[in-house]
Every structure is written in structure tokens, then in C-alpha cells.
Amino acid sequence: MKKDQILIPLPRSAFLLVKCPNCGAERVVFSHAKTVVKCPNCGAELTRPTGGKAEILGEIVRRLD
């Protein structure tokens, strides 16, 4: 196979900027987080682990690539 034909796989995970639904504070979280991530201001859950991809409970502002 030629060098220019080899495709580099892209990761399925990413860092996300998530806005808290209660207070509006923003926090960077990992899309496949294995622990509960809470808001730094009010303590509300932003992500909940599900075994693979984390369930995002806040609003995703943007993907940080």
C-alpha cells in the first residue's frame, strides 16, 4: 500500500465545553468520562458515566479539537 493511501483513524472521543443548566457556568469535560462531573459553582451533575460514552446532562457549547 502506498504511503499516501494510508488513512489515519480519528478518535471517537473529544473534550467538550459544557454549560450548566442551572447556573450557566461552563466546564471542559471528556466525552467518555468514567466519573460523575459536577458544576464547580452549584454542584449540579454535568455528565453521568454509562459504560462507554458519558451522558451529557448540560448543554454542549462546542467541541474542543
Automatic annotation (TrEMBL):
Alphabetical GO CC annotations of the entry are: ribonucleoprotein complex; ribosome
Q: Which UniProt keywords apply?
A: Metal-binding, Ribonucleoprotein, Ribosomal protein, Zinc, Zinc-finger
Q: Does the keyword Metal-binding apply?
A: yes
Zn finger limits (C4-type): 20-42
Any one GO MF annotation of this record: structural constituent of ribosome
Q: Where does Zn(2+) bind?
A: C20, C23, C39, C42
The record ties this protein, via SUPFAM superfamilies, to:
Zn-binding ribosomal proteins
Zinc among keywords: yes
Q: Name one GO biological process term.
A: translation
Q: How is the cofactor bound?
A: Binds 1 zinc ion per subunit.
Q: Which cofactor does it need?
A: Zn(2+)
| Family, per entry | Belongs to the eukaryotic ribosomal protein eS27 family.
Q: How does it assemble?
A: Part of the 30S ribosomal subunit.
Under what name is this protein listed? Small ribosomal subunit protein eS27
